[in-house]
Structure formats: C-alpha cells, structure tokens
Design goal:
It is a single chain. Helix content is 42%, strand content 10%. The chain has two domains: 47 residues, no CATH class; 71 residues, no CATH class. With 142 residues, the protein is mostly helical.
Length: 142
C-alpha cells in the first residue's frame, strides 16, 4: 500500500495495518487497514494520536413519582405527551403519532377506533409506570 507521510508529504510503501517509518523524516505511524484506506495515515506517537471520544450520551431525566403522575394527567388530554414527559420516549412517540393519525382519519371513520385506542394505551402505560415506580426499591427514595 502506498501512503503519504503527514509531516513531510513523502510517499512510500507500507504494509496495511502495520507500523511504518517515513524514510525521509523518520515519522512513525501505522498504515491504514484496507477498510480504512479512505482515511489518512494514522500516527503511532501517542502525542499525535487523535483522541476518539464516544458520542455524547442522551441526558437521562430524573423521573419522580410526581413527574409520572403529571404525565398521567397530561395523557388524559393529549395521549403520548405525558408518556414523553415521563421519559419513555419511544412509547410516548408511538402513542402521540397514533393519536394524531386517529384524529386525522376521523372523517374516514378509522380514527374513531385509533384515537380512543391511543388514549387508552397512554393511560394504561402511565398507570403501569406508576406501579413499576412504586414497586422498584431505591435507596435514595423517601
């Protein structure tokens, strides 16, 4: 594999995935593996290695019993919105989308089944979330 030194731009041959030293300036680096061929030559010197940071994690919302109860009350008005507030994102989005599709399809009579189904699903999931919260022992809860 032919690579180019990032320091002096001299081209030289190197074995894929192995350390290589530039014949011109002595810069030591690892040649990219074949699946990394589109990337530039990777330095071996620790001070020159780019730091790989994992993607940032989604900040977890501290869910309290009060937050779940408020979510239940909101779910009575807008199914799914209260579930989102209680940090159950995928379930909440599913309920909200089902409810909105149900509202949009009421003229076709399909919505007469979808909207109430989303409402019942949201209420049942909020009540189940409250029961799970009460059953889960945690040392920090009073």
């Amino acid at each position: 594999m032919r690579i180019q030194c990032p320091r002096c731009r001299t081209a030289f041959d190197a074995v894929a995935g192995r350390a290589a030293t530039c014949p011109e300036c002595g810069f030591e680096a690892r040649a990219p593996r074949t699946h990394e061929a589109h990337q530039e030559f990777i330095p071996v010197d620790a001070s020159e290695v780019p730091v790989h940071r994992p993607p940032p994690r989604r900040r977890r919302v501290h869910v309290t019993r009060e937050r779940i109860a408020i979510g239940l009350a909101i779910n009575i008005l807008v199914p799914g919105l209260g579930t989102l507030l209680a940090d159950r994102k995928s379930e909440g989005w599913g309920q909200l989308v089902l409810f909105l599709v149900g509202l949009a399809t009421i003229p076709f009579l399909v919505g007469l089944a979808l909207a109430p189904a989303a409402w019942v699903w949201a209420l049942v999931s909020s009540i189940q979330h409250l029961v799970e919260y009460d059953r889960t022992p945690t040392p920090h809860r009073h």
